[in-house]
Amino acid sequence: MVRAYVGLGANIGDPVQQLKQAIHLMQDSSDVQVRTCSSIYRSDPVDYLEQPDFYNVVAELETTLSAEELLRRCQEVEQELKRVRVIRYGPRTIDIDILFYDQLLIQKKDLEVPHPKMKNRSFVVLPLAEIVEDTERFSIPGTSECLSDWVKQMGNPRGILKLEPMLTKREEENTNVENRKC
């Protein structure tokens, strides 16, 4: 089993429900298990500003899938939740990005891991730091930095708000997520 982290975001339709659906769909097969999820964060849009706020969460996975297979699984979940790519960085029902895959540096045409833009995105770094056990020891592949460095560099960012746990107590009871944090 390989440990991976994915970032999920949504800002049209019912974003919170779509995040929850995406988490459940990610683990519909035996080759992906969601270990834990961050709280839900609401953030201002980035790059393309004329759109609603985003709702974001980061999930820690264990998987037997290769990085490329995990990317395909993420894209299948996006399609299932009616993701349409019209405007780059534009509104979406769901967006799922692989942030880290087994602490590997992957640079391929269709897949870059660690995700190349996450260092400057509080809506990824803060939820990730919430679920990583030791940010001081969580090294960033391809750099000499660790996650705690990124959190410190971020300071107290504007435009992001921690909202709520990913699942309610009732939802936790009905899910098969290993440690019930998701």
Structure summarized in a few sentences:
With 182 residues, the protein is an alpha+beta fold.
CATH topology: Alpha-Beta Plaits
Strand percentage, roughly? 15-25%
- Going by CATH, the architecture would be 2-Layer Sandwich
What sort of overall outline do the alpha carbons produce when their principal axes are compared? globular
Secondary-structure-based class equals: alpha+beta
Show unreliable segments: 176-180
CATH homologous superfamily grouping: 7,8-Dihydro-6-hydroxymethylpterin-pyrophosphokinase HPPK
Distance between the termini: 19 Å
Largest sheet: 6 strands, antiparallel
> What is the average per-residue confidence, as pLDDT, rounded to a whole number?
88
Series of secondary-structure elements, N-terminal to C-terminal? EHEEEHEEEHHEH
CATH class annotation = Alpha Beta
Q: How many structural domains can be distinguished in the coordinates?
A: 1
Q: Compute the CA-based radius of gyration.
A: 15 Å
Overall description:
This protein has 182 residues and is an alpha+beta fold. It is 27% helix and 25% strand. It has a single domain, classed as Alpha-Beta Plaits (2-Layer Sandwich). It is built from five helices and eight strands; from the N terminus they run βαβββαβββααβα. Strands 1, 2, 3, 4, 5 and 8 form a six-stranded antiparallel beta sheet that branches. Strand 6 and strand 7 form a beta hairpin. It starts with a strand and ends in a 9-residue tail after the last helix. Mean pLDDT is 88; it is low at 176-180.
